[in-house]
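Appendix B. Extra example for self-study. Work through it before the problem class; the solution is given directly after the inputs so you can check yourself.
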Amino acid sequence: GQQVMQIPQYQHVQEGEDFTTYCNSSTTLSNIQWYKQRPGGHPVFLIQLVKSGEVKKQKRLTFQFGEAKKNSSLHITATQTTDVGTYFCAGVNGANSKLTFGKGITLSVRP
Amino acid sequence: EAQVTQNPRYLITVTGKKLTVTCSQNMNHEYMSWYRQDPGLGLRQIYYSMNVEVTDKGDVPEGYKVSRKEKRNFPLILESPSPNQTSLYFCASAGTSGSYEQYFGPGTRLTVT
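Solution. Structure tokens for the complete assembly:
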């Protein structure tokens, strides 16, 4: 079945450093979504990417969809303590429209 | 306010005692889904529903049942809970299908002893 991989599962950064994480799919995706879960909270939708090579920005967050539509990245510029949480990608299979979540990456930020 | 609600938020129960976790959304969404979240395993889909009376198995359906008699409600039923079903459960809804933005409920933390 479809696999969506996020490695590593944890990353620690110093406040002010940039942070990049990747999401890789075993199958071609029709679109990819990113969610953020704060500690003790529930996942909250951040963004959806649909087009090959698409880049979207939300303030200090930059999301990119790969040209082959099998991978995606999330880049945070100058991390802040408010960026702490777990970031999930979720890929929609292009063949059957099934949504599969990655295991997530938990980001901690040292002040 | 657009929201997904779940009840109860916390539940401690014993092995074999049937329980139901309710989920309701007020956004007139067609798609609803249940996930469980376990450390190191991320979000795994249990069941989903594309519309009223239409339900399908997700990745980990064993030991769970669902029903979708009304558009707004999607209860999760554990007929005979076991300790390996101790987990954090999330209900989610989306406009048309899973390929759309999903709105998650606040979660239900279940402990089965």
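Self-check: Chain B has a mean pLDDT of 95. If your reasoning did not lead you there, revisit section 3.
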